[in-house]
């Protein structure tokens, strides 16, 4: 596969719930190996976009391509390349960490031996190697998140999408998760789409896509957006880009 | 970068098998973790057998009707109905667990698998069916000590019938689960699906007796797929095939399954109208 093919590409994507327009003609792409932050307030359309990218919603208007594969036409092959961390928890609380991983691996057609090896490797990477046999219910919120993020990498996807993965975590755990994902990205050579409403999670070299009320407001490197808006930090840049509705933005 | 990006994994037949195995394994684990579910699945038919059937034994005489070649006691008569009841409850319970999974987000994990969605849902059905067959055999074991002793070969010949009935009732549950928005709405399904299906069938009384009471009810019972599920099991338990019941059960299984697959298809089904499972938007 050509390295220049975007990891994720949305072309003129629109989606509505009845009369309410959740996404309106959104186009952007995530470069291969890039860390792209999807920045928007609650209700900006981030979760709708996730549901479309993960094929939980059908795409009615526009086109989504994962590593060059059309999500509508080659959904199986496209989903095999995708790792997802949802905003809400999707682990089975009554099963152990290893059992959750085994189930996830099976759903991707990965056999027991490889699943075991990969589980050990990933839990080591997220610092939870000693918790493999523990029930998920007995883990802390931050640990569950780490388990979920590592699980999303089990089938070696090339694109990882995370929907507000730090929601509900304290400051320390938030920083840990962010650092962890950045390390994993470097280690596994992934592309990442990280949705958030928290501007302090953005690094200057990250790509940023600003979504507001279902519309794309800006796209570019964080440093370029700072320069364009003349703001001193990303919060200022975000406020400038979305206008008066910025109350409550982090 | 220590892990090079591999070529996309091919979905081979072996991979399909691994996936199916994983779904069945998880359902089995969940079942083992919910001991109360197993106990109540077992106690329910046993209460009917030990108390209801014992009480009615003297009231209701059952004449010689196929597949029985002698006069049978009432508790022998209702055993196939109770076996089907176990599967009916299990099918609805699996559907309840699907609604739960949807609310808890586990459904998203399943639907993110690269395998075709129809295959994933079918895997879920197989898993639920196997669990229900396990429950039926546990019931039959206890019933054996209660002198419900069908021919030994019957324990084997009933397997395909149980699998088909399990699939049909599981698919019905799955179809219903797609219609239920929230867990709380499930009680309605119990009242409007489980009870009418069970009572308006040949599970508790032979249909010729129903006909004596009400011609209309007789036709309702005849049209009830659960009647055919019961009769399929009843005949199979005695090494015979009731072809009409087989055709109706298989046909209904196919219709319910197609309905469920349609309902869980993002581009056409009900989810598209209402929003994805567990969607936070």
List the helices and strands and how they pair.
The complex is a heterodimer of chains A (250) and B (281).
Chain A lengths: L7 E10 L2 E11 L4 E5 L6 H8 L7 E6 L2 E2 L4 H6 L1 E4 L11 H11 L4 H14 L15 H12 L6 E5 L7 H18 L2 E6 L10 E6 L2 E7 H8 L4 H9 L8
Helix pairs in contact in A: 3-4, 5-6, 7-8
Chain B lengths: L12 H21 L1 H22 L17 H31 L1 H6 L5 H29 L8 H26 L6 H14 L7 H7 L1 H9 L1 H13 L5 H21 L6 H5 L7
Helix pairs in contact in B: 1-5, 2-3, 2-5, 3-5, 3-6, 3-7, 3-10, 5-6, 6-10, 6-11, 8-9, 10-11
How would you portray this structure in words?
The complex is a heterodimer of chains A (250) and B (281). Chain A is α/β, with parallel strands linked by helices and 250 residues long. Chain A folds into two domains: 1-81 and 160-250, 3-Layer(aba) Sandwich (Rossmann fold), CATH 3.40.50.300; 91-156, no CATH class. Chain A is built from eight helices and ten strands. Chain A starts with 7 loop residues before the first strand and ends in an 8-residue tail after the last helix. The model of chain A has no long low-confidence stretch (mean pLDDT 88). By secondary structure, chain B is mostly helical. Chain B has one domain (14-267). Chain B has twelve helices and no strands. In chain B, helix 3 (74-104) runs antiparallel to helix 7, helix 6 (154-179) runs antiparallel to helix 10 (225-237) and helix 8 runs antiparallel to helix 9. Chain B is globular. Chains A and B meet through helix 1, helix 2, helix 3 and helix 6 of A and helix 1 and helix 4 of B.
By CATH's scheme, which homologous superfamily of the largest domain in chain A applies? P-loop containing nucleotide triphosphate hydrolases
Based on the coordinates given, report the CATH architecture of the largest domain in chain A: 3-Layer(aba) Sandwich
CATH topology (fold) name of the largest domain in chain A: Rossmann fold
Number of strands of chain A: 10
Q: Which regions of chain A contain 5 or more consecutive residues with pLDDT less than 50? A: none
Unreliable runs of chain B: 1-6, 275-281
The average pLDDT value of chain A, as a whole number, equals 88
Can you count the beta strands of chain B?
0
CATH class descriptor name of the largest domain in chain A: Alpha Beta
Structural class of chain A: alpha/beta
Task: Write down the Rg of chain B.
Answer: 20 Å
Multimeric state: heterodimer
Q: What best-fitting shape of chain B do the alpha-carbon axes yield?
A: globular
Q: What is the alpha-carbon Rg of chain A in Å?
A: 18 Å
Which structural class matches the secondary elements of chain B?
A: mainly alpha
Q: How many structural domains does the protein architecture of chain A include?
A: 2
Largest interchain contact: A-B, 47 and 49 residues
- The 3D shape of chain A can be described as globular
């Amino acid at each position: 596969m050509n390295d220049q093919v975007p990891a994720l590409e949305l072309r003129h994507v629109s989606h509505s719930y009845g009369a309410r327009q959740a996404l309106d003609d959104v186009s952007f792409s995530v470069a291969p190996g890039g860390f792209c932050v999807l920045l928007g307030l609650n209700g900006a359309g981030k979760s709708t976009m996730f549901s479309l990218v993960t094929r939980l919603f059908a795409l009615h208007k526009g086109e989504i391509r994962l590593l060059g594969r059309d999500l509508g036409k080659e959904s199986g092959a496209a989903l095999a390349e995708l790792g997802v961390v949802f905003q809400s928890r999707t682990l089975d609380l009554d099963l152990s960490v290893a059992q959750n991983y085994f189930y996830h691996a099976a759903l991707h057609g990965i056999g027991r031996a490889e699943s075991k090896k990969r589980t050990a490797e990933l839990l080591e990477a997220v610092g939870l190697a000693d918790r493999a046999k523990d029930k998920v219910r007995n883990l802390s919120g931050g640990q569950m998140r780490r388990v979920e993020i590592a699980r999303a990498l089990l089938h070696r996807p090339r694109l990882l999408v995370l929907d507000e993965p730090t929601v509900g975590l304290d400051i320390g755990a938030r920083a840990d998760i962010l650092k962890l994902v950045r390390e994993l990205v470097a280690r596994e050579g992934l592309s990442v789409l990280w949705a958030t409403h928290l501007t302090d999670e953005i690094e200057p070299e990250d790509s940023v896509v600003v979504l507001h009320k279902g519309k794309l407001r800006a796209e570019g490197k964080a440093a370029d957006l700072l320069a364009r808006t003349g703001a001193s930090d990303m919060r200022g840049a975000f406020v400038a880009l979305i206008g008066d509705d910025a109350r409550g933005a982090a | 970068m220590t892990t090079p990006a591999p070529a996309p994994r091919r979905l081979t037949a072996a991979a399909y098998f691994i996936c199916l195995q994983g779904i069945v394994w998880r359902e089995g684990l969940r079942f083992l973790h919910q001991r109360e579910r197993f106990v109540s699945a077992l106690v329910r038919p046993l209460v009917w057998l030990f108390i209801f059937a014992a009480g009615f034994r003297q009231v209701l005489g059952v004449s010689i009707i196929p597949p029985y070649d002698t006069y049978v006691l009432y508790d022998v008569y209702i055993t196939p109905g109770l076996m089907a009841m176990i599967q009916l409850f299990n099918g609805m319970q699996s559907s309840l667990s699907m609604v739960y999974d949807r609310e808890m987000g586990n459904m998203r994990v399943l639907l993110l698998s690269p395998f075709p969605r129809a295959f994933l849902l079918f895997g879920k059905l197989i898993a639920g069916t196997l669990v229900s067959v396990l429950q039926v055999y546990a019931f039959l074991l206890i019933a054996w000590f209660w002198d419900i002793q069908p021919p030994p070969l019957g324990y084997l010949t009933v397997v395909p019938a149980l699998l088909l009935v399990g699939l049909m009732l599981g698919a019905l549950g799955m179809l219903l689960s797609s219609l239920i928005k929230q867990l709380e709405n499930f009680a309605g399904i119990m009242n409007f699906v489980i009870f009418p299906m069970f009572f308006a069938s040949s599970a508790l009384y032979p249909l010729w007796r129903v006909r004596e009471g009400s011609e209309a009810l007789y036709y309702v019972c005849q049209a009830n797929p659960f009647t055919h599920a019961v009769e399929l099991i009843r005949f199979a338990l005695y090494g015979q095939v009731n072809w009409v019941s087989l055709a109706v059960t298989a046909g209904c299984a196919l219709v319910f399954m197609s309905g469920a697959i349609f309902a869980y298809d993002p581009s056409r089904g009900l989810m598209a109208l209402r929003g994805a499972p567990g969607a936070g938007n």
